[in-house]
Amino acid sequence: MSAFYKTEVCISKKAIRNNIKIFRNHIGRNVKFLAVVKSNAYGHGLVPFSKFAEPYVDWFGVDSVAEALSLRKNGVKKRILVLGYTLPSRYKEAEKKNITLSFFNKEELSVLKKYSKLKVHLKIDTGMHRQGIYVHELDSFIQEMNPNQLNGMYTHFAGPKDKKFRSYTILQIEQFKKAVQIADKRKLKIVKHVCGTAGALNYRNAHFDMVRIGGGMYGMSMNAPYAFGTKPILSWTSVLAQIKKVKKGSYIGYDLTERLKIDSEIGLVPIGYWHGVQRGLSKIGEVLIRGKRCKILGIISMDVLVVALPKKIGAKIGDSVAFMGKQKRDEITVREISKKLNTVDSNITTLINPLIPRRFIR
């Protein structure tokens, strides 16, 4: 824990290298690795994470031109694909900084033609029904494009993690193969990619030219990755700021939602929902202090939460408080937290306030 911050996020360089190596070995030498670093690298720190990962990957995937420009400004040289929608007003910046855009709007082709050096990947809708054009629209779409601008083509699976959706995923793969045939007839030399983390693990025959690894790279649970050998790379700590004794029957926090059943010792931790500790963890979440689990009491406030201190724990002001990560023999993982909130791991990490320092450690 830093001596200057009351809360910080630490990222393990060793775990990053380990996770990327695992996926590199899985996808083989002939498939490119696109590291998905959108949304502040899933909360892990867009710029520092990307700069550290750059020697080990081939491409980066971001959500916006703003994220891509931030990487370029900080010296990232590898190819960058913007996965989200881009306003035409930002095409010029993307062209200037060699940023590749995802494209799926025929209405904007006339604007795209003004930027002849701008490269794009076409997004194909094979069944998820978010961004993308349908396969039957592809040929006419290509005819209206400058072929020199078309650098790639991709799609996204709707349910690659779950075996019950396997037939649907295979249907999506077959749809994409039809799109590839159309591109091949036009003799287009493009990068083709369909798999994210779960797809790369569960559909090895659909790796095509590149895979997009997001959650698995950060050691998040995608059904397979934990068993696959990847590890969480993020830990999040704070500090015990106050200890006090409270009588039986006393209320803790806003709205009197928690009433103590016995005389208790409680601890105050100076992080709250502003920092990214979701309010849904009120009364059910836990932290680690001196390697022991301490229950969150009452409603989590904007900048503080209260925990129960077990008897004989010997807690002292200044003790490290682990909201996520290891302490002695115990560990609170992002998977444990996301299960309590009935959500996905990335929903937890992306909401960690970006103003909290990300410290990269060995």
Brief summary:
The protein is α/β, with parallel strands linked by helices and 362 residues long.
What does this structure look like?
The protein has 362 residues and is α/β, with parallel strands linked by helices. The protein has two domains: 13-228, TIM Barrel, CATH 3.20.20.10; 234-332, Beta Barrel (Lyase, Ornithine Decarboxylase, Chain A, domain 1), CATH 2.40.37. It contains twelve helices and 20 strands. The strands form three sheets. Strands 1, 10, 11, 14, 15, 16, 17, 18, 19 and 20 form a ten-stranded mixed sheet that branches. An eight-stranded parallel sheet has the order 8-7-6-5-4-3-2-9. β15 (286-289) and β16 form a beta hairpin. The mean pLDDT is 94.
